Every structure is written in C-alpha cells, then in structure tokens.
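Q: I'm building a small set of examples for a reading group on sequence design. Run inverse folding on the following structure and report the sequence directly after it, with nothing in between.
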C-alpha cells in the first residue's frame, strides 16, 4: 500500500489560554500543501512494527508516530495490531512546524482504514487520531479547516483559492515547550483576525486571506531566530508574495503567490542562504 502524507501550514495561529489539563486552547486556520512524504505499508515477518525512514535519526519503533497510529487504529477496532513494516520517504523538513510526523501518522490511519474495509468514517478516523497527536485529526482530513481546542476540534472551511507557496525552513530548530512557556509569561498584544480570515475564505478572496495571516508565536521567538524569520518573510514579500507568516511553532516561514514566476524568483533568492526552500501549491481536502 502506497500513501501520500501532505504537509500542513498555519494561515493563522492564536493561543487563547491554558487549559486545566496543562495544554493550551488554540484557534488556527490550517491549510494542506502538495509537499508530501511517501509511505508504504507491508505486513511484517517480525514480532513488532518497524518504521524505516530515509532520515536515519528518526525513531524506528513504537516512539515513531506512524507506529503509534497503527497501534491506536487497531485498539479502536478492538483487535491486536499485527506487525507491520512502514517505510517513509521524508520530503517534509523535520521539526519545521509543518506536521511532518503527524501527517505520516494520519496517512497510516487512512491506509489501514482502507485495508480493513473502511470501518471508520472520516470523522471517526480523525477522532482515532486524537490519541496519536494533536495535529493528527486535521492531517487525516486535510484541506482548509478551522482547528480549535488542542487542534482536534475541526470545522471544514471553503477551500483556499489555488496559489503557489514558497516554503523556507531556516537552519535551526525551535523548542515547542519553550515557546508555549514564553507565551504564558507575556501578555500578547496582537492576535490574528480569525473572523476576517473566515470571511475572506468564504468570499474566495486570496489577497484578503494573505493580509490576515498571522502567528502569535512570532512575537515570542528568541531575538536571533526572530531576525531570520523576519528576513525570510521580507524576502518573500519583496518578490511578490501577497502575505507571509510562520507555520506552527516554526521555524518555517512561507508566502502565498499568484504568479509562478514570482514564486520561482523568491525560491531562488532564498536558496542562496537556505537549504530547505521549496515551491509547492495548496492541496485540496483528502475527503470532500
């Protein structure tokens, strides 16, 4: 079985506050893109599920979200999980704020659901994904969606008008717990115009969407990292992006373009200084 696992981007990301369970209430507009990992799933002759990946530093056993997804799927079916051989060809940068691990897990859920004769509806499969990770329910469904709660409460939105996306990951990683700690320690003065974003999507207004892209985590980045993310965004805007922001807890920044030629020029300019620079497009929902 061969599967695609699409990356996600945050058009908006807002942190509303702490929850009693120690997590945070979020409000985010999410978008999937054509950048994707390739997965294959085979029965295994071994005693447990193994995950093999072209990135050797990623975990290859139960700690990998893809293996956890298989275990959670069969738990939801009320059966023991058979040993599987899951192979992942990573194309999504790691620790980039694009749900690379979560989307691989979601692809495993979709693949096993198909293999077992579709015992779960899309909504039910997304609910199974909650036990795997907060971004997994969204990644099961894909497309354009409002995600609330920890990210598991999903509302499908009108599809973002087709456009080109230049994605650039700086050569550093960001600690997600550290950023949440920084958000908790300050008063956020700016928040995304989520209502305006939803209205722009309803109207199919791509420039209106781009103008409203905003991520509160940009306001609490460490100074040196904030400079790089800002410089990437400025380069994207300089070459014609309608808007630019950071995805997730970063450090990836991206811009939306209507013209391929502008997007190609931006990609080429950023590639002089950064190794992870990609020109992709927006992707439709996996289920409609």
């Amino acid at each position: 079985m061969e599967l695609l696992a699409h990356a996600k981007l945050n058009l908006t990301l807002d942190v509303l506050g702490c929850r009693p369970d120690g997590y945070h209430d979020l409000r985010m507009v999410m978008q999937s893109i054509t950048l994707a990992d390739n997965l294959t799933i085979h029965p295994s002759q071994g005693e447990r599920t193994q995950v093999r990946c072209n990135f050797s530093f990623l975990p290859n056993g139960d700690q990998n979200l893809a293996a956890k997804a298989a275990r959670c799927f069969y738990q939801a079916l009320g059966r023991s999980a058979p040993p599987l051989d899951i192979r992942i060809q990573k194309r999504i940068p790691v620790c980039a704020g694009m749900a690379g691990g979560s989307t691989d897990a979601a692809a495993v859920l979709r693949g096993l659901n198909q293999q077992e004769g579709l015992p779960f509806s899309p909504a039910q499969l997304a609910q199974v994904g909650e036990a795997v990770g907060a971004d997994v329910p969204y990644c099961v469904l894909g497309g354009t969606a409002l995600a609330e709660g920890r990210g598991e409460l999903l509302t499908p939105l009108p599809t973002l008008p087709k456009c080109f996306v230049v994605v650039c990951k700086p050569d550093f990683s960001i600690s997600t717990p550290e950023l949440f700690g920084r958000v908790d320690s300050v008063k956020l003065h700016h928040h995304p115009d989520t209502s305006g974003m939803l209205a722009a999507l309803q109207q199919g207004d791509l420039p209106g969407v781009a103008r409203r892209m905003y991520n509160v985590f940009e306001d609490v980045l460490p100074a040196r990292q904030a400079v790089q993310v800002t410089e990437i965004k400025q380069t994207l805007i300089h070459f014609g992006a309608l808007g630019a922001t950071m995805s997730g807890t970063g450090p990836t920044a991206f811009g939306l373009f209507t013209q391929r030629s502008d997007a190609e020029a931006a990609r080429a300019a950023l590639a002089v200084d950064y190794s992870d620079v990609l020109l992709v497009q927006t992707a439709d929902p996996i289920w409609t």
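The longest strand covers residues 24-43.
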